Amino acid sequence: xxxxxxxxxxxxxxxxxxxxxxxxxxxxxxxxxxxxxxxxxxxxxxxxxxxxxxxxxxxxxxxxxxxxxxxxxxxxxxxxxxxxxxxxxxxxxxxxxxxxxxxxxxxxxxxxxxxxxxxxxxxxxxxxxxxxxxxxxxxxxxxxxxxxxxxxxxxxxxxxxxxxxxxxxxxxxxxxxxxxxxxxxxxxxxxxxxxxxxxxxxxxxxxxxxxxxxxxxxxxxxxxxxxxxxxxxxxxxxxxxxxxxxxxxxxxxxxxxxxxxxxxxxxxxxxxxxxxxxxxxxxxxxxxxxxxxxxxxxxxxxxxxxxxxxxxxxxxxxxxxxxxxxxxxxxxxxxxxxxxxxxxxxxxxxxxxxxxxxxxxxxxxxxxxxxxxxxxxxxxxxxxxxxxxxxxxxxxxxxxxxxxxxxxxxxxxxxxxxxx
Length: 420
Hints:
Layout: H1 19-38, H2 45-54, H3 57-65, H4 71-77, H5 83-96, H6 106-120, H7 125-135, H8 143-150, H9 155-164, H10 170-179, H11 183-190, H12 197-205, H13 209-216, H14 225-235, H15 242-246, H16 253-260, H17 265-275, H18 279-294, H19 299-316, H20 322-330, H21 334-345, H22 349-357, H23 361-370, H24 375-385, H25 406-415
Helix pairs in contact: 1-3, 2-3, 2-4, 3-5, 4-6, 5-6, 5-7, 7-9, 8-9, 9-11, 10-12, 11-13, 19-21, 20-24, 21-22, 23-24, 23-25
């Protein structure tokens, strides 16, 4: 049989390749080989370090994500000029910490800690935020790094550490509450498991309404009786605290009577169900409620009327705008926010209320967009009005933009029969 000619690995084409085409082809194949090696955990420490020093951006990103990279390589990549390289490194680095120490050489552990320290001081908030999310629950991180992140000026960086880090003492938390520059940080403290009495006192003393609400709904928060009395006193005038109060499972009988003296029918029903109140108490509370309603002092009706008056006054003065809704969301004024969104988006009040009560971030973001407001307002409504958890919150894209496309937002509004 005639022998077959060997297959060429170069693409078949008419005529000879030029020198430039051959060099470009060789460079492309070399880059492909580097990219493949960069993702192999068994490529060898020296190979990965070489690629981290000399590879293209895509190669360096792959090395940064590779758990087989040596501590010296990780430390080198912490200073990389490419943001995504440092983000990939921040995602990975926390997974290495629990395996260090013991039989590992001390200098390897020191290099890894140095890498984390460098990432904690990165100029870009996104890198620091990814690192904070990665190490938030670890107890093997040096405390000075944890404190650096907990005091970061960016909420997305500080909040995960403040809420989850086991390394923060009560003294640290009280200092963080006293110096917090963003409301979300105190609320993050309030969501910790557990929250001790001294920390709870500091949260209540801050008069941060979203944080106090988070404290009340945290079953692992210890709230002293005297502190609870103070909250109840505030709640009589602040509707935002009333429902969270009724969700507590440790209210005294005296506290229940005080709360029932100013909340509406639905919240009294919640208290009755949660505490299994006997018929005599039920009868007395309902009698008091009926008397208040007959006098025209029902808190639910009065609060709604007041909210409607605020929105109508703002509209008449030409002040029903971004600043108005932003301030109402900050103050957790649920009815004011609902009525304002309904007016600005030109949708029925019942629809706006249904969207807010859905407990889902996406339709609320769509409604805010339809109302002509910013993603900043949408995030505040999620946080302070809807009281969504960290896992339920949908933040802005690139810090300011809506995270959904316009088609997606139209779809979510259409689900509630709002046509845009």
